[in-house]
Amino acid sequence: MTYKTVTLKRGKEESLERFHPWVFSGAIAAADETIEEGDLVTVYAHDGTLIGNGHSQIGSIAVRMLTFDDTAIDEAFYEQRLTDAYMMRKALGLQREDNNAFRLVHGEGDFLPGLVVDIYGPTAVMQAHSPGMHFARDIIARALTKLPDGIVRNVYYKSETTLPYKAHLDPMNDYIIGGMETDEALENGLRFHVDWLKGQKTGFFVDQRENRSLLEHYSKGRKVLNMFCYTGGFSVYALRGGAELVHSVDSSAKAVRLTDDNVALNFAPEDQRHQSFAEDAFKFLDNMEKDAYNLIILDPPAFAKHKSALRNALMGYRRLNAKALEKMPHGSILFTFSCSQAVNKEQFRLAVFSAAAQTRRKVRILHQLTQPADHPINIYHPEGEYLKGLVLYVE
Mind listing the pLDDT tens digit for each residue in 276-290? Predict the structure, then answer.
């Protein structure tokens, strides 16, 4: 197969020689005039040395590298990469009798930049974040159904909100293979409805699985407040952990209904420990009584999707954490998170530190949290680390 070509400026191959998977537009000296968005291209150094193959894209990231050699990007390529990704998840013990929800492909972390695939029982939910992966969706879907153990029977494509709007691709969310069997998935023995048809992301935040388990460990006898609850994952784990009460808050009435459904899916209808509220988080924290909760979870959506929003995001994290800290009694525990890729660990920690200092609380860090192993970070692409969390003991 003949690919279109991209040639780099002198010295701009250095990051690629260290296997960083992005070619920025400013690094390109020359390119085929016929290149279109999503085309397969071969990248060459200024002296003609072949570097590898990737997907072209309009924007600051001009090429996402798939290989660092001349390996063809065909169906066999995707079958091998997806099989490698699955075998790692299998080695992690994520596909088992009491757990069938996990991330199968995490973009650059699985050497498939621009692609995300989450597994929910027999269904794979696929998201393309690049035009190249959008154009390869049918090949990828077929490859998913060929994975070992026959784990995938249905492939749902959900990329309406993830593809670059400038590409004018007009993707349709729909099943590529199969259809709806069940919307239930198992996570550590707990059952969850997953709304991949209309829900956020792929329908469920599998990246908080291990952090939810940690919360369960701390929940016994506590009064728990789960802010930005979405599907109620933290709430369900807290209830199983023996919480005295659990209150779930989200500005979306639909999210609150989904939380209630997931609580009912796992506990007796007469279990009165749980209550949910469709309300703005900041307003709820302003109005809640002091000392009402001694375990609070703050897991907001990304406050900064781009560097330009960083300053306001850090102010938001500081304000949110301060509102929670000032209302918590002595001996409380705070689980606080940021999923903003533009905010690094040190910046987030400083925002929380500032909130603690502002409220004049004595605070100790019990745990520093990150994304789980099925959201791996490519060692050559540190930008793939996005989830940051702290577990704090508040005096």
Answer: 999 999 999 999 999
